Amino acid sequence: MANRRKFLKTTALATAGVAFQSFISKSEEVVVEINSGKVNKPIVLSTWRFGIEANEAAWIVLKNKGRALDAVEAGVKIPEGDPTERSVGYGGRPDRDGRVTLDACIMDELSNIGSVACLEHIKHPISVARAVMEKTPHVMLAGEGALQFALQQGFKKENLLVEESEKEWKEWLKTNEYNPKANIENHDTIGMIALDANGDLSGACTTSGMAFKMNGRVGDSPIIGAGLYVDNEIGAATATGHGEEVIRISGCHLVVELMRQGKSPQKACEEAVMRIVKLTQKRGKNLKDIQVGFIALNKKGEYGSYCVQGGFNYAVHDAKGNKLIDANYFLK
Ligand code: SD4
What is the pTM of this model? Predict the structure, then answer.
């Protein structure tokens, strides 16, 4: 770690002359390199390891000067369509009744929003959310109504429950205990936020939610302001982890508002996580059982992340390449 710190400080000094600066977060783990002279764009961030492949798809749009909105939709469709990713889209783990129910939302630079909750049988809920945004007078459709709308729009009805997920569910039924653990079995929501070459922000978030949840349970991921928020004047944020905790503090809206007050994306994520930490303690709950991670990006292309406990990582793709970063965290 010492070497890394030294390297970062050296980098900061060496590059100061060309208007680059490095910021080292509290535990020296997260490094946000920003270009303070000009906007670092285009850039895309997404949650978890599979964000690397998702970013690649988004980058194709961004590097061709496409819209951030198109980039984030293309990006999150990668894990959505991958049956081996067990908590997003096709292949996602089912609820306690064995049903795969999906949550997703999308938001563009004009604050157009679209969302679906508890949607079944459709492989790409993010595209249904976009259709809600673009083709209806509403912003959110849930359950059967969302499915009917998707079918009317030409989306194909499919079985999303893959053999592996079904096996796990049958195994789970033996104990029938709902006890979501931090970073285990529940941790793969993809949230993606991007700043395009035009300087516009958009975001997308999609998930199968907490494994073995109650049927009808909706998490933070389809809720604008909780699992995702974009303000084209300020920045964007998205969340992963226990949705109930994110909703409790209107998490991503809070992160964006903190950036509006002048906080860096890193500091904004830290403060939002601290809000969760305090409320958890106040409510007499055990913080060890909770994981929430935020990622944030501002209009200058600066970014940051913070989470309750270790284990969360996120992928960042800009002109310098695509990399996975371990997020800094509160519980050491
Ligand atoms: C939810 N936030 O449904 C989602 C799950 C998740 O990492 O992100 N897990 O609560």
Answer: 0.88
